[in-house]
Design goal:
The protein is mainly beta. The protein is built from 1 helix and 17 strands. Its main location: membrane.
């Protein structure tokens, strides 16, 4: 009888330990940092497929989307801090509920337009400078196994996939890399005026990004409400070029703990 009670007590202690661990992990994920894997190439070469990072959820305060499955009963946003132009932000898609990661380009009240691939912000062309090419191997990338798009297409598997690279300097002084592949709809857009309480996001890999240049009805994200911002990405923690994290021979050691710009 005593051994049975001891066994039952041991099971209960194990259950309590698991429950406590889940609660602590849930609180940590809700209040501080959320893990995020980069699944696509829309932010190359700033972020590569297979990069792993923690999103700083304290950066902008908390809203309904701060909790897993948007379960936080928070109206609007609490402990709010304004994001800054040039921030790399994870946000919840206003319609389909997916988590996206893009660069914040337009603040409330800004006008944003693209002409021949050039960013026009509040009527002024944003300075860009050529910076060579971004080269990668034309092969399947990440768990999804998609191939990259190339400016020098067609490229055979195993060949070098090239994209034009530029450095763009936003008002305020944030400089970052952008890529160009070919002509796309997003290279020439109407002039957008960012509504109050909303933001305009664009991917650094400009011709391979569904972002605020595209309406939600055609798969874009449109203007993103402040309440949909989850947090800021500041640093890559780990990176793997393979389809599985455990394939150590595909780890990108030069990207471990890499600060983002």
């Amino acid at each position: 009888m005593a051994s049975t009670e001891k066994a039952e007590g041991g099971i209960m202690e194990t259950v309590k330990t698991v429950v406590y661990a889940l609660v602590i992990a849930g609180v940590f994920r809700t209040l501080f940092f959320q893990p995020f894997w980069i699944p696509s190439g829309s932010m190359k070469d700033t972020l590569l497929v297979g990069d792993f990072l923690f999103v700083n959820k304290m950066a902008y305060g908390y809203s309904q989307v701060s909790c897993p499955f948007s379960m936080c009963p928070i109206p609007g946003r609490i402990f709010a801090s304004d994001p800054e132009r040039g921030d790399i932000v994870v946000f919840r898609h206003p319609v389909n509920g997916s988590d996206f990661i893009k660069r914040l380009i337009g603040l409330p009240g800004d006008t944003v337009q693209f002409r021949d691939g050039r960013l026009i912000l509040n009527g002024e062309a944003v300075p860009t400078e050529p910076d060579g090419t971004f080269d990668e191997i034309f092969e399947r990338q990440g768990p999804i196994g998609s191939f990259p798009r190339c400016a020098n297409a067609p490229v055979g598997q195993g060949g070098v996939c090239e994209k034009e690279k530029f450095v763009e300097t936003l008002p305020g002084g944030v400089s970052h890399s952008i890529l160009n592949i070919d002509q796309s709809f997003g290279d020439n857009t109407p002039e957008f005026t960012v509504p109050e309480g909303h933001f305009f996001f664009v991917g650094d890999n400009r011709d391979n990004s569904q972002d605020s240049r595209y309406a939600q009805s055609v798969g874009g994200v449109g203007f993103v409400p402040f309440e949909n911002l989850i947090g800021r990405a500041d640093r890559v923690i780990f990176s793997s070029a393979g389809s599985r994290m455990l394939y150590f021979w595909t780890w990108r050691g030069d990207r471990f703990f890499k600060a983002l710009e």
